[in-house]
Amino acid sequence: MKFFKYFEFAYIAFAIFFIIEAIRVWAESESRAYLYLFFSVIAVFMFFFKRRFRKKIENKNNK
User: What residue segments make up the domains of the chain, in order of their start?
Assistant: First the structure.
């Protein structure tokens, strides 16, 4: 289960990457920047979703 715990933080890393890319390409193409921001929001959502799901499974296994 530790693997899944560390894998959750990959979503945060992707979100940070997409935010940096959005800032970098903002002047060139706003539509692409919005796409990167959308991906970063999805990545943050997936982080919290996976975290909640993992904790739910851990609690189920501990009982």
Answer: 2-62
Q: Is the pTM of this model over 0.70?
A: yes
* Burial class, 52, CB count within 10 angstroms (exposed 0-12 / middle 13-18 / buried 19+): exposed
Residue range 34-44, pLDDT digits in tens: 999 999 999 99
- The Cα 23–Cα 26 span in angstroms is 5
Separate counts of helices (H) and strands (E) for the chain: 2, 0
**Residue-level pLDDT at 1:** 61
Answer whether 37's CB lies under 8 Å from 16's CB. Answer: no
